[in-house]
Amino acid sequence: MRSERINSLIEQYRPGYGLPAGFYTDPEILAADIDVLTPLWYIVGHTSQIPDPGDTKVVSLFGESVIVVRGSDGLVRAFYNVCSHRASRICDESAKGLRQFTCPYHNWSYSLEGKVKSKRLEVIYDASFDPDAHNLRPCHLRILEGLILLSVSDTPTDFDAAYQPFEELLRFYGLAAAKVIRVHGFTATANWKTLVENTIDPYHVPVVHPNFTKTRTPAYWQAAASTRTADVIAAATQAEQEMKEWEAALTQLPNVTGVVVQDGEHDEHFRWLVRGPLTPGFQSETIGGKRVAPLMGRFTESDEASVFSNLNPLDSLFMSPDHATIFNIRPLAHDQIYWETIWLVDRDAQEGQDYDIDEVCEFYNEVNEEDFPIWEWTYQGATSRAYRPGRLAPQESFIGEFQRWYVRRLRQQVHTPEPASA
Fold first, then answer.
1. Which residue has the higher pLDDT, 119 or 380?
2. pLDDT bracket for residue 224 (50, 70, 90)
3. For residues 269 and 381, what is the distance between their CA atoms, to the nearest angstrom?
4. SS (H, E, C) 156-196
5. What is the DSSP string of 46-111?
6. CB neighbours of residue 59 within 10 Å
7. Does pLDDT of 118 surpass 90?
8. Which residues pair with 272 in a beta bridge?
9. Which one, of 254, 290, 61, lies nearest residue 172 by Cα?
């Protein structure tokens, strides 16, 4: 039945137009969406959040609860939050300084490395009991310059192949030597694809985000969002010249500029990574362009630029020389998402002395508040009987690329042949 619904929607889909309503509003599509998304890797935090042995971070990802823990040996590991005895949750919240995990149901205990260790087992079970078969089940975890990434798939995608292009840039920005200063999350009534399409849509920025618009030159936004072809061509030429002038003046990371990674419909992860100039005189991606924290990583001065990146369709990482911001989209239902924002600065920076936390968070707090009603209004419109998929503007080409990526993977899930022209 699910494959019939998906096939029907796929047949309705026209490249270059919005997705048919059912892709957003049909509850049965979510299970297929999760199948598409789970093999990828997702940011669930930063190592600064679990600095000492016994520190844990309990996270939720596609309905799975996972414990991320720093072990007695200092290594970071991840385990499914499931007791191997009778399936109880072991931890209900993050904690500091645990010496072991203890299940609240029957008091089974496990080491921080996931080994079953309860002495009660010696009384209850005979010699046929296999302790190793009752250890906590590990979850796939990798660290990327301090970022903690998980995959809840049994067969995740190739991590090294996916993120090697990100390493040089993240290392220069000092992500491994950063610290989380604030985490803010909230739910919205929308489909996850509504948010993905919004995050990769430059067309709406001059309309919805006045302070964001000021971080780039008029030529940049004319090229990205103008409605007249002649204006786009002229602005693109000017923006290209501005890019060349910025690159010529660079003394830091001169070999990593422009579009470093941009996946398309045939790629596995739908990643992108772009580094480009801010408005002249802007030191950071902030309201007014001033720096709000000490320089991070290897920066000796601001490069007057910022980095936009997606590690997958749901996780974005934006960086300035003095701070970084992570955005996570987590589908909770076909009509509900959880949006989380994480802010980081250099780990040696002192709050109240080197930075004001509200000032660091101000810019993207504002952007979130401006986008929130757009997400919900767009989803509400998709539920209307009057909704018809509209034609995408040329400036929305990356949205079209995402939609083709998504539909292609749905076809693979239900084993539907692609059209001959695809």
1. 380
2. confident
3. 29
4. CCCHHHHHHHHHHHHHHCCHHHEEEEEEEEEEECCCHHHHH
5. EGGGS-STT-EEEEEETTEEEEEEE-TTS-EEEEES--TTT---S-SS-BSS-SSEE-TTT--EE-
6. 22
7. no
8. 262, 310
9. 254
